Each structure stands twice: as C-alpha cells, then as structure tokens.
C-alpha cells in the first residue's frame, strides 16, 4: 500500500462484536456487470425494488439480475427480473461480464445489527481498489465478515472497504471515490474487490460538505442529462415546484442513497418533473466516457430534457494545528518490524520475550492445536474471524489447547480435497491485536494412499516458513473370523455361524470400507465373489452385507466351502476414510439394504485414485465326519506358502450342538434296535418251545 502523508500509524483492529449477532440478509449490487448463474424464475415489467424484494423473500434465491431495455418508439424502460438459485458471484475467481443497463444483486448473510432497510447495503466493484488512504486493516476469513466489520465500525465513518481474497486482508476507510481534498487513485487490483457503504445517511455520504451541482466532466450538459433520463433507472419520481425542492428531496431521501437528480423545469399539469437516481458517473464502470458513447433516441418526442445534478463532496476545513483525517490515514504495516531482529531459530518468539512451541494433533472431527510457552501466558487463542465462537481464554498458563472443529461455521475450518486448514491467533490482549501477537496457518492433510497425517504452520507476518510434520502411521487392517462365542477360529464345519470381521484400532481418525471381496478355493481353481466393486453383497443369503461395529466392519454368515477343497481363502480390498464411511445402498430383490463397503464422499463429490490394500484370510471348512482328517489337513495347509497371508490357528476343542444331537439320536436308535432284537428273540423262543425225543 502506498501511504498518504508523512505520518503512518500502525493499528490492527479486532472487532469482536462482528460475530456477536445473528446473520441477517443484505445485498450487494453491481452496476452494468453480470455473473453466470442458474435462473429458475423470470418475470417482466417489475420495478427494481420489487425484483430485489422478491429475491429477499425467496429462500432459494441467491441473486437477482435486473435489466431493462429502452423502447426507442415511446421511449419506455421495459424491465426483466431473473431470480437465480445458483450464482458464480461468490466465487472470487469468476470473472463478471459487462452488460449494459444491468443491476446484479447478490444475497449476503452479514452478522451486524447495523444493516439498513435499503434494497442493498454495498455497491461492489470487482478487481478495483483505492491506493492508500486506509484507516484500518484486519484479517477476516470471508468477505461477509469484512463487510460486517465496516458496518460495525464506530471510531470513524466507514465509507468503503476492500477485501483481498488471497491474503484475507480487509481494509476499512473513511474515503471513497468521491472524497475531495485528497488524491484518490482508483486502480486495477486482481483478486481485490472494492465496496462502498450504502447504509450511510445522506449527511454521512461525504467527509466534508455535500453539495449538488452540474458535473464538470468534459461532456456537454444536455448530453449527460439526456443519457440519465434514458439509461439511468429512475428510483423515484415526483412533482415539485422548483429546482431547490427537487434538490432537497434528494438530500433527505432515506429509502436509498440519492446520488443525483434530474429537474425538468417548472411543473406542467400532473406530470412529474423531478427524477431521483442512486447512480452518478462515478458508479458507471466507464465513468464519463459512458455519456460520449451513448446514442440519441430514434424519435424525439419534444419533451424537455432538463438539468442534471450530481452530489459532490467538498473538503472540510479543519482548525489550525488540529490533525485532519484527510492528512493522517491510519495504515497497518504488514512488513516485519526491524527492531525485532528475529532469526530462523527464534521465529516463534515475540518482542515480549514469549516463545511458543506449537503442535497439532489431527483427528477425525477436530484439529487440536496445543501451545507450550517458556513463561506463563495471559490472553487468548482463537480462530481468525471466529473470535467469539472458537476461542479459549488463557490465564497465567504455559500449556493450553484450542480444538478447531472441522465442520460447521463455529471455527470456519476450510477443506479442499482432504486438506483442512485454519488460521490461529495467539493474542496477549483480550480485545486488541498488536504486533506482539502471533498468527499461524494450521493445516492437516489426510492422505488416504500413504496414510500419513501432516501439518505445516506459517506465521503470517514472519518471512520464514515454520515446517512441522507429524506422521502417525495409519494401522493396517486385519481379518478375523469368530465363532458364536466370539473366539477366533481356523477350523469350522459347514453351517457353523461365523462372524467375518475387518478391524483397525479404535484410537485412529480413520474409518474403513471394503469392496471387491472374493472367496477362493485353496488351489485357486474356484472363486466366488461375495462383495462386488460397489461394496454390495452378491448373494446376501450366502454372505450378508457388512455392518459397522465401532471402527470395524463385520458380516455374520454360515460357513461354506468349495466342492474340491476344504481350504477357503477370503480376500478383500480395503481403503481408508476420514471418520466413519458412508454405506452403499444396495438393491436385493424388492428390498434396499445398506452395506459399509463404500467410502465417504468428499466435499466436492470427487473421488481420488487411491491404491487398494488387499487382505486375505484362510479357514478350514470340514464336512460332518471329517474330524479325524482335521489334523492332517491342517498340517498340510500350514506347510503351504500363502505369501503374506497371515493365518491364526486356534483349534476348537468342543463338539458343536449339531454333532452332539446327531450322536444322541444315533445312540438312541442303537439302544432301540438292541431292545427290539432281545424282544424278538424271547418271543420266538416262547412261541416255539423245544421238541423232546421220545
């Protein structure tokens, strides 16, 4: 920033009351600019204020595009109002298109009690700024917070504000494009938007005296007046008795900021002879050249053109020796203080002698920022732009922590493709920020493929990067097969009820999902897919869908095997999610089931290409009567090499209920057969006594 005058005072203002109130609806307006958007409703011949009011009442409306064309035969302004439920105007990288006779109004949510009842609170000019002449600089995480700070400013009249979407700098000023007595340079600035406060009262529009006169801009007066009558939207028409009455009407107008008026001469009948406008030549993107390029109407109906007047700001006279706001702008210096003499080794120390050891723990729902100091610290730690909703007060402590939520607006943590970032302020004073305070950029990167969690921190005002890396290893998952008693088994029988589990430890920020699971015979000649590529069960009657159990996935199924092999090998592709994974909705017949075989979608609904982790587990499935072969089969299977497959061997010592029942039935039948045989033998002997020889 260039500095006006010889004295520069550093100030860094923290406006804590910006976030103390609920968000309210307000609008910003662009003149002769248009943004791309999705129009869901169009209506003709509404007034500008009816169009804006309709958008205000519609919950789905995000922006309103109001345009009009001039009918050269009448001439009459024919209007068109388009309501949009999607708009690119909130995207800093989106470029607006020039559009003649267009007013584009974007709905905002501002946390301020000072929002006026006017149709729009700010006039926005994209990619522009006033060089120098700033009264204060603050850092805000959003444009809306910057605009709210301007409305809430009470130490000086905030007439304009500039917001830098890259550096998050919000510059407040009591100067605008109409300020007199200073050299105002309105220059191009990519990535910076200029806003003028239109909630000011008429007597606050100028730093000095406000007056109305015919503009001296190098264009003929009648040409300017004719352009205003045809191409300015008429905010209000009335009948007055004199030019002074029309001027007074513009000065006291409270429903909008009246910048100019057109007086058509003495009243004639019931015709209106005074038109009030919210526009002036400063508002037009091309300035005075707009009038030079305008064409006259095709038909001259002979009506009076009138005289066009614009408001001008006159320099205020200051008392002798008194400081004037016009000569002493207050600008915050963003360069490093040369008196600090900071080096790379003490970059985390401030001018008060306090040194900070900052560490970050990246978790699944929050970012824990822990600070240790070399001496007791008094003040507060908070998220930049969320000082009221995301803060911790510190009282005489050398160890403290701030938890940044990763979702919601309380801490306003930003996320892009797995990277979560925020800005943390370590502030000594409870209200005011000074150069003794530290600002850190905190970032957590959740990398699913390498399963490393890293973060980096960078003090905004220090030239050197502070690089701190934390890489907690994501634990590899494992497969366990449990029986009905929740014991891990390797040898089972057909029909046994088993629990198939894929597990990771509970103390990890990750969740898991599984897909592309297959069951294979030991010789790999036969395979059967049990979970498809989408995470859905192929046949739920054989292998049901996965369900979550803490950080684990499990499916309860009955043991099966292949005809030609006792050994069954299960193999699954497993990936990580940040936090719990979302289920896949699977269709089976007429039913819909959920299966935790799909990862959670990212914020922008994009899926990254990641490397699958393949797990496998073997189990021995016996038929009834195969118990004698189990030891031989186990020894045979254990001698085979299955690469990296991990086998857990726990032999079941007890018979199953089915085998006990079968044995009981067999014994009962044998006893019954024995009794029947004895009964038949004695009955035959009794009916046929032995013969005696005479």
UniProtKB/TrEMBL annotation:
Residues 1-23 form the signal peptide. The keyword Signal applies. It comes from the Eukaryota. Residues 361-593 form the ZP domain. Gene3D superfamilies: Hepatocyte Growth Factor, Zona pellucida, ZP-C domain. The keyword Transmembrane helix applies. GO terms for biological process: anatomical structure morphogenesis. Residues 21-107, 116-199 form the Apple domain. CDD domains: PAN_AP_HGF (cd01099). The chain crosses the membrane at residues 660-682. SUPFAM superfamilies: Hairpin loop containing domain-like (SSF57414). This is Cuticlin-1.
């Amino acid at each position: 920033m260039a500095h006006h005058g010889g004295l520069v005072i550093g100030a860094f203002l923290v406006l804590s009351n910006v976030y103390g109130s609920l968000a309210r609806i307000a609008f910003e307006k662009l003149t002769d600019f248009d943004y791309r958007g999705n129009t869901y409703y169009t209506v003709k011949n509404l007034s500008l204020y009816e169009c804006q009011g309709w958008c205000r009442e519609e919950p789905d409306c995000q922006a309103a595009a109001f345009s009009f064309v001039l009918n050269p035969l009448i001439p009459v302004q024919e209007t068109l109002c388009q309501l949009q439920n999607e708009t690119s105007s909130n995207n800093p990288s989106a470029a607006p298109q020039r559009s003649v006779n267009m007013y584009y109004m974007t709905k905002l949510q501002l946390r301020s009690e000072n929002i006026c009842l006017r149709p729009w609170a700010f006039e926005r000019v994209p990619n522009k700024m006033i060089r120098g002449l700033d009264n204060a600089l603050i850092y805000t995480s959003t444009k809306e917070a910057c605009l709210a700070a301007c409305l809430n400013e009470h130490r000086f009249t905030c007439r304009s504000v500039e917001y830098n979407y890259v550096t998050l700098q919000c510059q407040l000023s009591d100067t605008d494009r109409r300020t007199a007595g200073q050299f105002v340079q309105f220059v191009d600035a990519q990535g910076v938007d200029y806003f003028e406060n239109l909630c000011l009262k008429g007597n606050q529009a100028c730093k000095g005296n406000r007056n109305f006169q015919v503009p001296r801009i190098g264009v003929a007066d009648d040409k300017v007046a004719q352009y205003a009558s045809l191409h300015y939207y008429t905010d209000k028409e009335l009948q007055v008795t004199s030019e002074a009455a029309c001027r007074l009407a513009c000065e006291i107008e409270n429903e909008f900021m009246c910048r100019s008026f057109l007086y058509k001469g003495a009243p004639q009948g019931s015709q209106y002879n005074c038109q009030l406008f919210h526009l002036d030549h400063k508002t037009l993107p091309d300035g005075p050249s707009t009038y030079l390029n305008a064409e006259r109407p095709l038909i001259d109906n002979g009506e009076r053109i009138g005289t066009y007047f614009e408001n001008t700001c006159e320099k205020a006279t200051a008392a002798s020796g008194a400081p004037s706001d016009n000569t002493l702008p207050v600008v915050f210096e963003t360069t490093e203080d040369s008196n600090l003499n900071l080096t790379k080794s003490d970059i985390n120390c401030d001018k008060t002698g306090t040194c900070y050891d900052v560490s970050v723990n990246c978790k699944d729902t929050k970012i824990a920022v822990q600070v240790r100091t070399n001496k007791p610290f008094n003040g507060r730690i908070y998220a930049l732009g969320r000082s009221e909703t995301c803060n911790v007060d510190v009282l005489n402590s050398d160890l403290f922590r701030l938890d940044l939520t990763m979702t919601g607006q309380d801490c306003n943590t930003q996320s892009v493709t797995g990277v979560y970032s925020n800005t943390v302020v370590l502030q000594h004073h409870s209200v005011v920020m000074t150069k003794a305070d530290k600002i850190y950029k905190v970032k957590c990167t959740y990398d699913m493929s390498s399963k490393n969690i890293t973060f980096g921190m960078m003090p905004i005002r220090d030239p050197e990067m502070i690089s701190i890396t934390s890489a907690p290893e994501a634990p590899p998952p494992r497969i366990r097969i449990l029986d009905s008693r929740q014991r891990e088994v390797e040898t089972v029988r057909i029909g046994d009820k088993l629990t198939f589990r894929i597990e990771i430890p509970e103390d990890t920020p990750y969740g898991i999902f599984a897909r592309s699971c297959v069951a294979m015979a030991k010789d790999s000649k036969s395979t059967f897919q049990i979970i498809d590529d989408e995470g859905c069960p192929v046949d739920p009657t054989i292998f049901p869908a996965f369900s979550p159990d803490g950080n684990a996935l499990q499916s309860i199924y009955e043991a099966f095997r292949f005809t030609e092999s006792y050994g069954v090998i299960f193999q699954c592709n497993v990936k990580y999610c940040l936090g719990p994974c979302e289920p896949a909705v699977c269709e089976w017949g007429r039913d819909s089931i959920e299966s935790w075989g799909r990862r959670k979608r990212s914020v922008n609904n994009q899926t990254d290409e990641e490397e699958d982790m393949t797990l496998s587990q073997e189990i021995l499935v016996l038929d009834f009567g195969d118990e004698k072969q189990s030891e031989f089969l186990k020894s045979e299977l254990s001698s085979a090499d299955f690469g990296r497959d991990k086998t857990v061997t726990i032999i079941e010592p007890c018979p199953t209920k089915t085998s006990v029942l079968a044995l009981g039935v067999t014994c009962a039948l044998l006893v019954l057969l024995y009794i029947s045989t004895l009964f038949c033998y004695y009955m035959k002997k009794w009916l046929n006594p032995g013969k005696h020889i005479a």
